[in-house]
Amino acid sequence: MRYEVSGKQIDVGEALQSHVKQELGVVMEKYSQRPTDATVIFSRSGHEYVCEATVHLSSGLNASAKAHANEIYAAFDAAGEKMDKQLRRYKRRLKDHHKQRPEPVELFGASSYILAAEQEDVESESETLQPIIVAEMETKIPSLSVGEAVMQMELAGAPVLIFRNEGKDGLNVVYRREDGNIGWIDPRN
């Protein structure tokens, strides 16, 4: 497995890098047979350290965890525990997923835009009603079943996931509802 351990305006030493590789390797051995790479990014938020860990599995699924702590090692350990818990929860489904899907998840390209937050300026409103585009990026939309999409959303810790439904030819959305349930939007053709 390939590791990328970095810091945003933080020097990440060799001891921390080896700790990350060792602990993350133990978690991945227990639950995932084929991880491809892991990205761990450390940053500061006020007096706390923030650790964001993402592991890419060869099946195309991603597992993500984020944690805060007063010490950098504690932040990583908390993120590692969250990832361990996520993968433990989905262990059976991940193993079944690998057996049923010999090919990786197919990804389709799409454009992604970041729009500027609305300003409370009356003059700019009269000029145009179009939002200002701050950034353009390329994003990938996976082709998954509904069950796999829900699992991917949970593993990534995301509130919403757009995917291409394998059973039908169209884009679908799964999202976490305020009542804790999962919503699924399946537009008719």
Automatic annotation (TrEMBL):
It is found in: Cytoplasm. Pfam families: Ribosom_S30AE_C (PF16321), Ribosomal_S30AE (PF02482). Gene3D superfamilies: Ribosome hibernation promotion factor-like, Sigma 54 modulation/S30EA ribosomal protein, C-terminal domain. It comes from the Bacteria. CDD domains: RaiA (cd00552). Residues 130-183 form the Sigma 54 modulation/S30EA ribosomal protein C-terminal domain. GO terms for biological process: negative regulation of translational elongation. GO terms for molecular function: ribosomal small subunit binding. The keyword Cytoplasm applies. Required for dimerization of active 70S ribosomes into 100S ribosomes in stationary phase; 100S ribosomes are translationally inactive and sometimes present during exponential growth. Belongs to the HPF/YfiA ribosome-associated protein family. Long HPF subfamily. Associates exclusively with 100S ribosomes, which are dimers of 70S ribosomes. HAMAP family: HPF. This is Ribosome hibernation promoting factor. The gene is PSrp1.
